[in-house]
Write a structure and sequence with these properties.
- The chain is α+β, with helices and mostly antiparallel strands.
- It has one helix and 15 strands.
- The strands form five sheets. It has a five-stranded mixed β-sheet, with no helix packed on it. A three-stranded antiparallel β-sheet has the order 6-5-10, with no helix packed on it.
- The longest helix is centred in the first third of the chain and has 37 residues.
- It is elongated, with a radius of gyration of 54 Å.
Length: 232
């Protein structure tokens, strides 16, 4: 809504600022506003002022109610002025312990009719129940022969094995990766031909002579193999 209203020229039907007394386009004098329009404007302002006063009144009532609720003192709980009594607490007689024919020894039973006393037999103890505290050892699922923490060798699709090439006299330190991870597996290393490649139980292999052999790592009946070709 514009701050300065615009009026419409009665001659050329163009709109211009309400501050002008004449139309800037055709020069026609602006007619004075009718008394009825002024009354309508005054009625609109009266409605706006009335709504604002009503909102202020409601807000004041709400603030007054909240303030009164917060100022209300809380009622203290009544003090317990009941005098304490020193009357002894009555204990009902146990019909079992008051019977003179019954003793308190848990291993003795007295017959109230004959007056005979005997001992209760001890409950038999079952010592034949086996106690199994052994925790099943996790088994190895897979083994991979590694070199520098990676799969050792290049896969030979013809042989269906990974293979590496060494020179006579060269050594390598092989390792293993097993699953599940973290399992303590005892790896057994073997060479199919000690004359070509010798292997120690720590995974160290030594190329002895020219030829081809297979190195295997076994644990829990799971085996991994690596083919080694030695050049002279």
């Amino acid at each position: 809504m514009a701050i300065i209203p615009q009026v419409k020229c009665s001659r050329c039907d163009r709109k211009y600022s309400g501050l002008r007394t004449r139309c800037p386009y055709c020069g026609a004098r602006r007619y004075a506003r009718s008394k009825r329009a002024a009354q309508e404007d005054n009625s609109m302002w009266k409605v706006v002022v009335g709504v604002l006063l009503l909102v202020v009144l409601i807000a004041a009532v709400v603030v007054l109610i909240v303030t009164s609720a917060n100022d209300t003192p809380s009622t203290p709980a009544p003090a317990d002025n009941t005098p304490a009594t020193n009357e002894p607490t009555s204990v009902e007689n146990d019909p079992i312990t008051d019977d003179p024919t019954v003793t308190t020894d848990p291993g003795t039973v007295t017959d109230p009719e004959n007056g005979e006393t005997g001992t209760t037999p001890d409950e038999p103890t079952n010592t034949d129940t086996p106690v199994n505290n052994d925790v099943p050892k996790p088994m190895v699922n897979t083994i991979i022969i590694t070199y520098n923490n990676r799969q050792a060798g290049v896969y030979n699709s013809t042989e269906g094995l990974y293979e590496i090439t060494m020179k006579a006299g060269e050594t390598l330190n092989l390792g293993t990766a097993v699953t599940p991870q973290g399992i303590e597996a005892e790896i057994v290393w073997e060479s199919s031909n000690e004359g070509v490649v010798a292997v120690l139980q720590n995974g160290k292999v030594t190329a002895v002579g020219k030829g081809t052999c297979t190195i295997s790592a076994t644990a829990d009946d799971v085996k991994a193999e690596l083919m080694i070709r030695v050049r002279g």
